[in-house]
């Protein structure tokens, strides 16, 4: 019979600088308030407050039937990057090429990769507060100093009204 060797897993010291994600804690509190009859606008985890529109569901099913079931290019599908570049160029009045566009499966990976690529140990990173908890956590993880810049209520309210205008 083979002898089992067990060793205690030793995490890297930098793991002690990794913060926690509080968005799900906020979600639980918001859901508790909803159960009490409160009206809540969810901004905590980035989950839409509506079902996926039927035409998108149909397009996804159609793509699966057509064999779109494999990995795509790591920077994103070329046609999507082209469309995003055209949209940003038009709406922001700046020229963006598809080569400058990277499509990721959410905001956190690209925020982490950007901080990892740009921040050296000891660098100061000014981040908006309130803002993504990842800014502070990832900055500390790579050895930077996270410096919150508190957003004025009027600026936050103005941003909110612009962001949620439909």
What features would you describe in this structure?
- With 166 residues, the protein is mainly alpha-helical.
- Among the domains are: 73-103, no CATH class; 105-166, no CATH class.
- The chain has helices spanning 23-35, 54-65, 78-92, 107-118, 133-141, 153-163, and strands spanning 124-129, 145-150.
- It has a two-stranded parallel sheet with strand order 1-2.
- Helix 5 (133-141) links the parallel strand 1 and strand 2 (145-150).
- Helix 4 (107-118) packs parallel to helix 5.
- The protein is extended, with a radius of gyration of 21 Å.
- Mean pLDDT is 86; it is low at 161-166.
List the helices and strands and how they pair.
Elements: H1 23-35, H2 54-65, H3 78-92, H4 107-118, E1 124-129, H5 133-141, E2 145-150, H6 153-163
Parallel strand pairs: 1-2
Helix pairs in contact: 4-5
Q: What's the β-strand tally?
A: 2
Helix content: 40-55%
* Radius of gyration based on Cα positions: 21 Å
Based on secondary structure, the structural category is mainly alpha
- Separation, N- and C-terminal Cα atoms: 67 Å
Largest sheet: 2 strands, parallel
Mean pLDDT: 86
Q: Approximately how much beta-strand content do the residues carry?
A: 5-15%
* Count, helices: 6
Adjacency order of strands in the biggest sheet: 1-2
The 3D shape can be described as extended
Order of helices and strands: HHHHEHEH
């Amino acid at each position: 019979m083979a002898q089992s060797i067990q060793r205690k897993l030793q995490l890297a010291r930098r793991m002690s600088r990794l913060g926690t994600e509080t968005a799900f804690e906020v979600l639980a509190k918001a859901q508790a308030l909803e159960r009490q009859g409160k009206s809540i606008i969810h901004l905590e985890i980035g989950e839409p407050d509506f079902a996926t529109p039927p035409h998108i569901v149909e397009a996804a099913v159609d793509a699966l039937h057509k064999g779109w079931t494999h990995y795509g290019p790591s920077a994103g599908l070329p046609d999507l990057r082209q469309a995003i570049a055209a949209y940003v160029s038009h709406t922001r009045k700046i020229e963006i090429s598809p080569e400058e566009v990277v499509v990721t499966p959410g905001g956190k990976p690209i925020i982490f990769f950007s901080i990892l690529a740009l921040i050296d140990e000891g660098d100061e990173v000014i981040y908006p507060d309130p803002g993504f908890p990842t800014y502070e956590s990832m900055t500390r993880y790579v050895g930077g100093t996270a410096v919150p810049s508190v957003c004025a209520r009027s600026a936050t309210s103005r941003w909110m009204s612009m962001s949620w205008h439909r």
